[in-house]
Design goal:
Blueprint (H helix, E strand, L loop, with lengths): L10 E5 L10 H5 L12 H15 L4 E4 L4 H13 L3 E4 L9 H6 L6 E5 L4 H10 L4 E7 L3 E6 L2 E6 H18 L1
Parallel strand pairs: 3-6
Antiparallel strand pairs: 1-4, 1-5, 2-4, 3-5, 6-7
Length: 176
């Protein structure tokens, strides 16, 4: 049984904390940068976050991991795979980490969660009850995918984003 996909007005949460850890990330590969801090694994933190995600999945809550490519790629994948837009406020995660790091950090044990309004209180109670760190970062819905940080918003048309993504994937498969 699969939980329902993200829907209009679902609240977007991130389980786990984001750290300044882009060393060895896809983002650093793309910009051809070597250096930075690599993600560190905390076994207890990882187990707690994973267990909270498992509990929520058991209550028909849609969850996507933030492993490869970080939060930005996880959210964009969710939007493109389920034909939905979103609005994300990166300051809800951290006001001390730069926006590009918040988007693409590959800190371990983080999950993007799509929560329908009728399940929000139960979800928050579950996370608080298990002492799992979380951040309410936005909502699904609209024709665009938008990430805000302070007074700047990067917004892209969902259909255009899908076209770029699908052509990039096809090009990668065909041409390596």
């Amino acid at each position: 049984h699969r939980p329902p996909p993200p829907a209009n007005n679902d609240t977007i949460l991130v389980i786990g904390d984001t750290h300044n850890e882009c060393g060895g990330s896809i983002y650093h590969d793309v910009i051809r940068y070597e250096g930075g801090y690599s993600p560190r694994l905390g076994i207890r933190t990882s187990m707690r976050n994973m267990e909270a995600a498992r509990m929520l999945a058991g209550h028909d809550i849609f969850i996507h991991d933030c492993a490869r490519g970080g939060l930005g790629m996880a959210v964009i994948r969710m939007c493109l795979e389920h034909d939905i837009g979103c609005r994300i406020d990166l300051k809800q995660i951290s006001d001390t980490i730069p926006s590009h790091t918040t988007l693409f950090s590959e800190s371990y044990s983080r999950y993007v969660v799509s929560v329908p309004q009728d399940k929000l209180n139960h979800t928050l109670d579950t996370l608080r009850g298990t002492e799992t760190p979380y951040h309410m970062i936005g909502s699904f819905g609209s024709d665009t995918i938008a990430f805000s940080y302070n007074d700047y918003t990067y917004e892209m048309d969902r259909q255009k984003a899908y076209k770029i993504w699908s052509e990039s994937l096809e090009s990668m498969i065909l041409h390596g």
